Amino acid sequence: MTADIELARIDGGTVAMHDARRKLRWSVELEPFEIGVYPVTQEQLAELLGETATHPRRPATGVSWLRAIRFCNAASEWEGLDPAYTFDGEDVAWHVDADGFRLPTEAEWEFACRAGSTTPHYGPLDEIAWTAADGVTAPQDVGGKLPNLNGLFDTLGNVWEWCWDLLDPARYDEYRVFRGGGFADDAWSVRASVRRGGAPRMHHEDVGFRVARGGFEATDAAQGWSAAADRERAAVDAPLPPGWTPRR
Hints:
Elements: E1 7-10, E2 13-19, E3 24-30, E4 33-36, H1 42-49, H2 65-79, E5 85-88, E6 91-94, E7 101-102, H3 106-114, H4 125-128, E8 160-166, H5 169-172, E9 176-179, E10 195-198, E11 207-208, E12 212-213, E13 221-222, E14 225-226, H6 227-234
Parallel strand pairs: 8-11
Antiparallel strand pairs: 1-4, 2-3, 4-12, 5-6, 7-12, 8-9, 9-10, 13-14
């Protein structure tokens, strides 16, 4: 690749997580991992997946969660790394011991974004994030605002970023999480703790992604995520409340 993926090493640590619907709070102990300094750009997507890069340095958007997963595998294969994912139709399995590129878990994303801060933003929002206050009508070139203390740019604002985790499988079935807020969002949505999500095939002009790396000696569980916890969260012992997405 001519546009290499630049990664930052994030030392292990603890991050506090929150599930508003279930009114739960818990802490996740993270092992060291790597994460992209920038969101994946149009140029990088074009080189690996054959997309058109009309604005090479802008974040790649209109990318579904499934497309982001395929980018990760393509980047791994290009670099001679073990792909992190296998497919069974549209069902994706994460092989947590693989050293290839992957999406960050929600806990990894929030820990990397916060960079030690405990407030909603890691700096003055107008200096670190593209938001509705800037009056822009599209994503901006990556790196145009100040980074956090981990050296990461655009974790808040510019575009939302897909993570590996399910949003709320009891309510939204297969929806996956995206985090961070985008260029069209007001300050309330551009916070380190805000969770949104969409279906794996969904694509939108303000949703992109950044990659992570790090393999772990485990099966179906790593960095705050586990398949067993997903199954537990999906279990509903009563009729769904009005307005909930019907599960298949």
